[in-house]
Amino acid sequence: MRLHRFFVEERIASHAGGRDRLAITDAKLLHQWRNVLRLKAGSEVILFDGFGVDYRCELASLDRKEAVCVIRESVKNDVIPSRQFFLFASLIRRDRFEWLLEKATELGVSQIRPVVADRSEVKKFNLDRAKDIVREAAEQSGRGSLPALYEPMELQNVFKEYTYFKSMVFDPHGEPFKKRDWEHGEKFGAFIGPEGGWSARELELFRSKKIPVYSLGPPTLRAETAAVAVTSLLLLES
């Protein structure tokens, strides 16, 4: 039977012999184990801390305040993207953006930076909830690390902080995208516009920064669909 897998904030040291114990005090996690999954002493789970190792643990004890996990086995996690992909996604309606976060995490993005665009109808962003969605997606997909996730940033400020890799922009009026032009990069980013696309001012800003503007073809895609399509094209093996 497949064991349930959970991310923990604590750094888990790799030890042998099954002698080492880890105390879990996260209230949300304890509630899930006790009241949702009905785990108990003797149950086994997989824990990971985002550093590329999965730990098979046995629950020595579990109550409302603490769970004591005995590390039985550590296994290197190979579900780690070979390329660093930074997704700059314009804010859209909450339910759609949350779906974007989930799928981008499953596909292997390295970092997600929400962007406030001229046509962004939504300005608010719940970072804590977003981190929960990303964590759960990483747990489910089996990836060994979590993507970095940050508060939204105004588009013009993005260029001041992210200057150490090449980027591309997607817009219906761009040039046809050719994957072969980006197959050999190890670190790159992509900007996805909001519903209605980037404004003329923003497209001019991208061009002034020498950032190429591409199109995914004739279909008019929702912003979240475009984000998933771009991520899949760039990260999944063909």
Termini gap:
31 Å
Content-based structural category: alpha/beta
H/E series: EEHEEEEHEHEEHEEHEH
* Helix percentage range: 25-40%
Write the layout of secondary structure elements.
Layout: E1 5-7, E2 21-24, H1 27-36, E3 44-48, E4 53-62, E5 67-76, E6 84-90, H2 94-107, E7 111-116, H3 127-141, E8 148-149, E9 153-154, H4 155-161, E10 166-176, E11 187-192, H5 200-208, E12 213-215, H6 223-235
Parallel strand pairs: 1-3, 6-7, 6-11, 7-8, 7-9, 10-11, 10-12
Antiparallel strand pairs: 2-5, 3-4, 4-5
What's a quick, concise take on this entry?
The chain is α/β, with parallel strands linked by helices.
Describe what you observe in this structure.
- This protein is an alpha/beta fold and 238 residues long.
- 29% of the residues lie in helices and 29% in strands.
- The protein is built from 6 helices and 12 strands.
- It has helices spanning 27-36, 94-107, 127-141, 155-161, 200-208, 223-235, and strands at residues 5-7, 21-24, 44-48, 53-62, 67-76, 84-90, 111-116, 148-149, 153-154, 166-176, 187-192, 213-215.
- Strands 6, 7, 8, 9, 10, 11 and 12 form a 7-stranded parallel beta sheet that branches. It has a 5-stranded mixed beta sheet with strand order 1-3-4-5-2.
- A hairpin with a 4-residue loop joins β4 and β5.
- α2 (94-107) packs parallel to α3 and α2 runs parallel beside α6 (223-235).
- The longest helix is centred in the middle third of the chain and has 15 residues, at 127-141.
- The protein is elongated, with a radius of gyration of 20 Å.
- The relative contact order is 0.15.
